[in-house]
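Next comes the chain:
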Amino acid sequence: MPRRKEIKNSIADKFYSLQIYPSDFFNSFDIHKEFTKWAGLAVDDKSDIPENMSVLTIPAGKYAVFKHVGPDTSIFQQIFGVWIPNSEYTLDDRPHFELLGDEYKKGDPNSKEEIWIPIKVRG
């Protein structure tokens, strides 16, 4: 976040908090299991990225999108423990991310964000 102004070709005023989980990450709950975390902006030109920053292209696919208000993270328990098991979908092996716009205020009870979970039809 401190370097976001260096990115001159940003196409939106929203930020991404993105996670790339190993394929077995959700098989069992382990708070010590490692994953990769990115902070990012959408850009329209990948050729002018500042030094020590990288490009990550999110593969196309279906996402379940949840609009969330407030700092409470129990929404993830609802998504992974209730919604997905009771839906026709299963997790897809693509990045998960939160889209954080002007209404995102970390820790604020009125903070708003979108949670994007990669899914595919069970089968």
Remarks:
- The chain has one domain: 4-121.
